[in-house]
């Protein structure tokens, strides 16, 4: 059975528009399916858990943004017979951009229903006393996580999304957050062996895929199936120099610039001098002064 878990509000209602197209295609092709619409946070994870507990070779296709896919992946039972697939319908679509998926919904569905093979992908795991979880695209500590927190609570977000101007929210809050950002000191331990100290840290961005924030290429070399996570650390430069530096990020031209540190690891432990906001795929559990991340090799399989 083909199950479609649809976030109708994804991408300023793009999720619902895409689903209407997909549903018409499925009916024309005579493909049996069941639809499950999400109404709030956590629904996608609950739906996936319910389906996978049937222990049947179903196909669960998520139609939504990166956040909906994140939820659905969290609900996959270990050893489940069901397979997970994804049709991107969000506003940022960093997962689809990084993995090379088409953003045409019918093209994606054709690929899913005609495919028999799955693609194994790495997943990032994050541990903290304040809240643990996983990420498919990226995680972050400091400035970028604080921006995520501010955007998630911004009153203007829904209004601008309806006008398809959602990126203005990130731009406005990003600039405001940079001006008010408090730099911090950090001790980093890579793979349990290498230790590095950083001062005047703006943020740490940890990547399984190259993009975050709707197309910002923080880690051009990140590959989701190489068994490593890529780190981008911005530290040791003045805020005045950070603004022109950050303008280079969309094209991935910031690597190699003064104040940018690019590292690779399987595990990293971060010790901050003060609690910092941290995120997993844009969701912010809170603040912590000690965060551990590691790569779960082949932690997820996607069909099509």
From TrEMBL:
GO terms for molecular function: ATP binding; kinase activity. SUPFAM superfamilies: NAD kinase/diacylglycerol kinase-like. Pfam families: DAGK_cat, YegS_C. It comes from the Bacteria. Belongs to the diacylglycerol/lipid kinase family. PANTHER family: SPHINGOSINE KINASE, SPHINGOSINE KINASE RELATED PROTEIN. This is Transcription regulator [contains diacylglycerol kinase catalytic domain].
